[in-house]
Amino acid sequence: MFKRQSFFPWFLALAIVLLLVACAEITYEPDRSFLNSAQAGSFEYPMKVNGYLCQDMERVPGLCSKRLADNQALILSISPQPYAYRAQLTCSRDLGADRSVDVAKNEELTLRVEPERFGALRSFTCIVEIFPADRAEELSAKAEVRVKLYDHRYVGRESMRINTVEGKRVLVTGANAKYSKVCLDDICTRHTEKTAIEIGAAARVFAYSESERMRFNYFWSP
Hints:
Strands 3-9-8-5-6 form a five-stranded mixed beta sheet. The chain has two domains: 37-150, Immunoglobulin-like (Sandwich); 161-220, no CATH class. The model has no long low-confidence stretch (mean pLDDT 92). The chain has two helices and 16 strands. Helix content is 12%, strand content 40%. The radius of gyration is 25 Å and the shape is globular. The chain has helices spanning 2-24, 37-40; strands at 48-49, 52-53, 63-69, 74-78, 85-91, 99-103, 109-113, 123-132, 141-150, 161-165, 168-172, 179-184, 187-192, 196-198, 205-210, 216-220. By secondary structure, it is mainly beta.
């Protein structure tokens, strides 16, 4: 009985090692028979917008929306790549920001759209299309951002935060929190004019609050 029990951990460790070795031996295969992402209309090239990764609601990079003050520049950036490429920027026609840029191997790309171009626009779209120079045929990938401009005089709400008060975890919703909804794990409650709400030992927290002037703030954890 003792021998069988001591043998099992060694057998398990050996199985894990063999599995890792098998995974390490996967052979590279070029996917030339597949549609490329731009051809398929799937926007998935990794791009940053004003320092944040552009990603959709499912956290897939390459497609996003951005709120931007109407006196701030839009900054699109792509990290250095192991190949040279041509980048084509195409934005809404009235913006007049279209251009093409050749980017060298291992060079970062930064594209700026200055606020002087916004004019009377309140929203616009920009697409960056990448044409790599190291492929046997011309193909491409795209990233897209939809920008919504807001009045730079607008003052947003402060961020919610969790504090510890007298040994208790408290969610601070803010001085202007007229209505709040707080979800602790799977239980949600509503509150009126409460600037701080005890949240106990909840592992997952989602909350938002609305002010008299309908300004909002939010909090969420995994």
